[in-house]
Design goal:
Structural class: mainly alpha
Helix content: over 70%
Distance between the termini: 31 Å
Radius of gyration: 17 Å
Number of strands: 0
Order of helices and strands: HHHH
Strand content: under 5%
Number of domains: 2
Largest sheet: none
Number of helices: 4
Length: 117
């Protein structure tokens, strides 16, 4: 829970820097703390999913690794969308985000709809 709180604090501070139009150099310092906290948040989320016994994905040994890869792909694709002006890169980033979203839907949402016996 401390990880989630720390990451939320970093996001709030980043939002404050942007909203109040403060020196953008602060964002670099926040990124240094935010990137590891974002990674830990993704891994912690996978760990929490693994604790939900009785669901099909709770028995997946590679759930943490899968979510880590999804997190990296989604983060890189989001950065490409923000900074790239190349049309091919933008299309590739949107395709990556769509693929991650579909996989996450199949991995998390669909198992929630199954009945427990």
């Amino acid at each position: 829970a401390y990880i989630l709180g720390g990451f939320a604090g970093i996001l709030a501070c980043s939002g404050a820097v942007l909203y109040f139009d403060l020196d953008r150099a602060y964002l670099e310092y926040l990124a240094i703390a935010g990137i590891p906290l974002a990674t830990l948040t993704g891994v912690y989320t996978a760990w929490l999913f693994g604790q939900a016994r009785g669901r099909s994905w709770s028995e997946d040994r590679f759930l943490t690794a899968k979510m880590f890869v999804e997190m990296l792909v989604a983060g890189i694709a989001s950065l490409i969308l923000l900074v790239s002006s190349n049309h091919f890169s933008l299309v590739l980033a949107v395709a990556c985000l769509a693929a991650v979203s579909m996989h996450a839907h199949r991995m998390v949402i669909e198992p929630q709809m199954e009945t427990l016996h």
